[in-house]
Amino acid sequence: MEIIAKLENLKFRASLLPKLKEFNIDNFVSGKLARSASYVLNYQNNSFGISQWVSPKRTRSYPYARVYDTMSQQTRVTAIPFIKDEGFDGDRDFIQWDTVSLMSLLNVYVLLGYYHEAEKNPKYKNKITNQVLDYQYLKEQLDKLINYKSSALHWNLSQLDNSLDVAQKCKNNYQIISKQLGVRMHSIEGIDERIAVLKESAKEFKDLSRGLAIDAQSREFQTTQPKEELTGEKAKIIIKNYLGGLYYLTVDEAIIKNDKLLLIEKKHSKNSLFPSIADIKDGIIRMMLFVNLAGTKIANRMVNHFSVLGLTSAKMKGFCHNIMTEQEIKSCLIKNGFSLQQQKTILSVFNEGKLNNFLVFLMDSNNPSYQNEILDSI
């Protein structure tokens, strides 16, 4: 199933926000904030909500939750390493176009950075740890951002246009780290290949956004016929924002039920009663986009849509959701042995759904039939 929709504005009442600590530029440049996930940076009469990724791979350390925590700030900035190489005995991750694309939709400015300090991992011959970004370089990017007058989309595209420079800095610094620590790193040739892939993705985005491939896309949509029940089927969503950019996202499940398109994002826990709050916030980032979609179409036919965040657990018995009364929800949670703090967390997540008009449910993953029963309540 392929879905097309518009995103004309981004309105969302985030209620799970922590109180962020505030720092100045000296704290930033010193590298003392390297282990901080999210914070407010006060610099030159500006307040930036800063989130930091520990890796460009978005499945590590819940970076979207870090971005979520800055959503109360007017100017949101996220620092992402262009590459993270842990050494030949470890992983190497690269920035993905989809990551930059999603940040643009959320109006978050991306600062591409590189690591320039590290320590040798004592457990492996060719692996490093405790990598630190070059914060002086990031400050220079912030200086440019302060005087920048355009959207996050255009800024983020300019960051990709400058990727050759930051990639070269990645190469140089990893070569220095390798020599200093006596650790073998991955081949630098892969970095050049990644630059080519990123630039091709950015070019494709620009071409599509200018309408060069719209006709072909329209023909593709017209041949896609929605099914009546699509539980478990991933779907592609093509979103056009107010600046004319086209973005490709996926949704975990797309279901047409009672003439309504349900966009369902799933989070699962195998060993706990519910997914971690960081994992849940990761899902809520998607909800921010989905609840603001308009003009939703399937096969060139307008459809009404509704957004759903599904939380599942192998330890859970039964189900509850945020359309139930608070008494019904608490009864379900108490039967499952939730502590008072755990109850408070789930009620807060459920309330976030109510505030922003999306369904949140928590159910036993061993009984998938519960999902249909829950969705019938919409």
Rg on CA atoms, Å:
22 Å
Termini Cα gap: 22 Å
Count of the separate structural domains = 2
Helix content: 25-40%
Strand order of the largest sheet: 12-11-1-15-16
Number of strands: 19
Shape: globular
Average pLDDT for all residues: 89
**Strand portion, in percent?**
25-35%
Protein structure class: alpha/beta
The unreliable regions are 212-231
Helical stretch tally: 12
Largest sheet: 5 strands, mixed
What's the arrangement of secondary structure elements?
Blueprint: E1 2-7, E2 22-24, H1 25-30, E3 38-43, E4 46-52, H2 63-68, E5 75-81, E6 83-85, E7 92-94, H3 97-105, E8 108-113, E9 115-120, E10 128-133, H4 135-146, H5 152-161, H6 163-181, H7 189-209, H8 214-222, E11 235-241, E12 246-251, E13 253-257, E14 260-269, H9 277-290, E15 293-298, E16 301-302, E17 304-313, E18 319-321, H10 326-335, H11 340-355, E19 359-364, H12 369-375
Parallel strand pairs: 1-11, 2-3, 4-5, 5-8, 14-17, 17-19
Antiparallel strand pairs: 1-15, 3-4, 6-7, 9-10, 11-12, 13-14, 15-16, 18-19
Give a description of the structure.
- The chain is an alpha/beta fold.
- The chain has two domains: 31-209, no CATH class; 229-375, no CATH class.
- Helices cover 37% and strands 29% of the residues.
- The chain has helices spanning 25-30, 63-68, 97-105, 135-146, 152-161, 163-181, 189-209, 214-222, 277-290, 326-335, 340-355, 369-375; strands at residues 2-7, 22-24, 38-43, 46-52, 75-81, 83-85, 92-94, 108-113, 115-120, 128-133, 235-241, 246-251, 253-257, 260-269, 293-298, 301-302, 304-313, 319-321, 359-364.
- The chain has a five-stranded mixed β-sheet with strand order 12-11-1-15-16.
- Helix 3 (97-105) runs antiparallel to helix 5 (152-161).
- It is globular.
- The model is unreliable at 212-231 (pLDDT under 50).
